Amino acid sequence: MVSTVKASYRRRFRELRLNQFNAEYGKQKEQLLINAVVKTLSEFKSKQYLGIFWPLAGEPNLLALGQHWPGPLALPAVIAKSEREAARLSYLAWPPDGPLVKDACGIPAPACHGALRPEEIALLLVPALAVDQSGIRLGYGGGWYDRLRQDPTWQQVPALVVLPQCCVVEQLPRDPWDVPFAGWITETGCQRLQP
Predict the structure, then answer these.
(1) CA–CA separation, 65 and 179 (whole Å)
(2) What is the dihedral of CA 88, 93, 95, 98, to 10 degrees?
(3) How far apart are CA 140 and CA 125, in angstroms?
(4) CB within 8 A of 126, min separation 6: which ones?
(5) Counting CB atoms within 10 angstroms of each CB, which of 94, 129, 179, 185 has the fewest?
(6) φ, ψ for residue 193 (rounded to 5)?
(7) Cβ–Cβ under 8 Å, residues 90 and 79
(8) What tens digit of pLDDT does each residue of 154-186 get?
């Protein structure tokens, strides 16, 4: 039942988000969102990795954040290690303009193969279709971020959802494996939840 409801929410918020970053109005809104991300990053004084994401349609492009972050950048990649071992989401070091290859989901990811450890990452910025007031994120349904963040060592890494304000809602359907995020960043600023 929850999966059917989530599928309906996904369709609704995918369309809403695409409309938010559409044409000239969308570029202005995207720039406001990026400015809010940059302001949030100024609060972190870390030289560790910043985990960002490759932008899909309707997602803000954060690839230029390296100029606002004192440390290196990392991109997520779904890696299939072997036929017997399930694919997993990992973060890989990515020097801006470094070579990219498609990961197991067909999304551009760094060509290097050394997965970063959670303690090497200061902050994760994660895309979403929606987020609710308790930090529950609605993603695309693959469960990659959920499985990653179920690991207690990854739960220690601060993680913020990045999305338009119109995609922040009071409550989303929740599965038992959903791990709340520490907050979210929209074009209106950063909202952090109490631990």
Answers:
(1) 26
(2) -40
(3) 16
(4) 51, 53, 137, 145, 159, 160, 161, 162, 181
(5) 179
(6) -95, 150
(7) yes
(8) 999 999 999 999 999 999 999 988 999 999 999
Cβ atoms < 10 Å from Cβ of 104:
15
Question: How crowded is the C-beta side of 143, counted as CA atoms within 13 Å?
Answer: 11
Q: Which two tokens stand for residue 76?
A: 């997520």
DSSP state of 17: H
Residue that the structure tokens 């991300």 belong to: 37
Write out the two tokens for 91. Answer: 């973060």
Q: Is pTM beyond 0.85 here?
A: yes
Structure tokens at 89: 């989401």
What region does 30 belong to: left with phi over 0, alpha with psi -120 to 50, or beta? Answer: alpha
CB 153 within 8 A of CB 53: no
Identity at 64, one-letter amino acid code: A
The structure tokens listed for 26 are: 């969308």
